[in-house]
Design goal:
Elements (H helix, E strand, L loop, with lengths): L9 H12 L6 H12 L7 E4 L5 E2 L3 E8 L4 E7 L3 H22 L3 E2 L1 H14 L2 H14 L6 E2 L12 E5 L6 H6 L4 H22 L1 E3 L7 E3 L5 E3 L5 E3 L2 H16 L2 H11 L6 H19 L4 E2 L1 H4 L1 H17 L3 E2 L2 H20 L2 E2 L1 H9 L4 H15 L7
Parallel strand pairs: 5-13, 6-10
Antiparallel strand pairs: 1-3, 2-3, 3-4, 4-7, 8-11, 9-10, 12-14
Helix pairs in contact: 3-4, 5-15, 7-13, 8-9, 8-10, 8-15, 10-12
């Protein structure tokens, strides 16, 4: 909500943004106890220096700047204590909220949403898995000089401590405040587009949390990706269906649209349901439909998005509701979140051509092989398993 322009009053958005990287941090006595627990009594001897004050703090943990014995700048991400219990308590509360929602509004059945959020949140607590996600992104974006991924220092990392190379850059809103040129804003948007969608279309992976605290922008417009706790790996068929739905909307092909939604996991798609789902899909895909430079906000402003969501919600209630498939959740979240970033940038880019450059040689079997190889390389389970 804090990322989407016009979704909240500015004062609310500014306060909520603090939770992305500027939440209150734990003090030095806590840090010493936690670091001793993760790396042993002599943990300070493993660093040349270690900052007492956190450089960033969010909901699950905080980051401290350090220097390795070899002189390299490091970022040490330290998880808060007993976060498993805190997350489980929050999930129980969310389940109660969803149950109450279902009593008075049948438009959306959130049970699969709950399962997806639960699995991804529990994964975020496992920094060993995040290290694998980070290695995966380093592999997937190895050919992109304008996108930097941290290098994990495995000997200084555990399940609750993640030590990695320190990346430079400033938050997006800080860069915007200094006054970027038209060309600079467009270049940042293009780099962000590649950072999120090259992994998706080439490997079936997406960063599910593009909020403003999860990356930094360098003065040359390149992007430093910071956090890989929330990564979703998709079946190759799901990615193919994303492309097929674009083609279906472009060509007015109802059969292809239905097949795409069914591949995602939607069921019982009547003609009326198809029209309703297409209302939302047309909103999300709109920037890709025109072969010309354009602003995202021409059709996808926060205010208009809220209006479209309201109309879709009203139609779903009339039709008896829909169950949102699990795989849809973070793909949709990433699309909306990234579109919000492009609106902040006021970028005017040919999104159609960027998209087509990525999908022009798409082949679902090649994606499957590429994905399996990449996941095996970093020790993650294949979607084919």
């Amino acid at each position: 909500l804090a990322t989407i322009p016009e979704a909240l009053p500015k004062e609310y958005a500014q306060e909520l943004r603090q939770l992305q990287s500027n939440a209150p941090s734990m003090g030095w006595p806590f840090v010493k106890r936690r670091m001793r627990g993760e790396l042993g009594p002599g943990w300070t001897s493993k660093f040349e220096s270690f900052d007492r004050e956190a450089s960033a703090a969010a909901s699950l943990g905080q980051v401290h700047r350090a220097i390795s014995l070899g002189g390299e700048k490091l970022a040490c991400k330290l998880q808060y204590p007993d976060m498993e219990s805190a997350v489980e308590a929050d999930l129980k509360q969310l389940q109660l909220i969803f149950a109450a929602y279902r009593q008075y509004d049948k438009a959306i059945d959130p049970r699969q949403i709950f399962k997806e959020l639960s699995d991804r949140l529990r994964e975020e607590l496992d920094y060993t898995r995040e290290a694998q996600h980070t290695a995966l992104y380093s592999l997937m974006l190895a050919d992109k000089a304008n996108i930097e991924v941290p290098e994990i220092v495995s000997e200084l990392s555990t399940k609750r401590l993640l030590t990695m190379s320190w990346l430079e850059g400033k938050p997006l809103m800080t860069q915007l405040a200094r006054g970027l040129s038209f060309e600079e804003r467009n270049q940042i948007a293009i780099n962000m587009f590649h950072a999120w969608y090259q992994p998706f279309y080439n490997y079936g992976a997406i960063h599910g949390d593009p909020h403003l605290g999860n990356y930094l922008i360098k003065d040359d417009g390149s992007v430093s990706l910071l956090d890989f706790g929330c990564v979703r790996i998709f079946r190759p068929e799901f990615v193919e269906a994303v492309i097929n739905l674009y083609k279906a909307l472009r060509d007015g092909d109802e059969e292809l649209a239905i097949a795409s939604y069914e591949t995602w996991g939607f069921t019982n798609i009547t003609k009326e349901m198809l029209e309703t789902l297409n209302l939302w899909a047309s909103f999300v895909y709109a920037p890709l439909m025109e072969d010309k430079p354009r602003l995202i906000s021409e059709t996808n402003s926060g205010e208009y998005g809220a209006e479209v969501a309201g109309n879709v919600h009203a139609e779903l209630r009339k039709l008896g509701g829909v169950t949102i498939p699990r795989e849809f959740v973070f793909m949709d979240r990433a699309a909306i979140g990234l579109g919000s970033v492009f609106m902040h940038l006021d970028a005017e880019v040919n999104w159609h051509r960027l998209f087509h450059e990525m999908i022009e040689s798409f082949d679902v079997e090649e994606l499957r092989q590429r994905q399996d190889t990449a996941l095996q390389t970093v020790g993650l389970e294949s979607t084919s398993a």
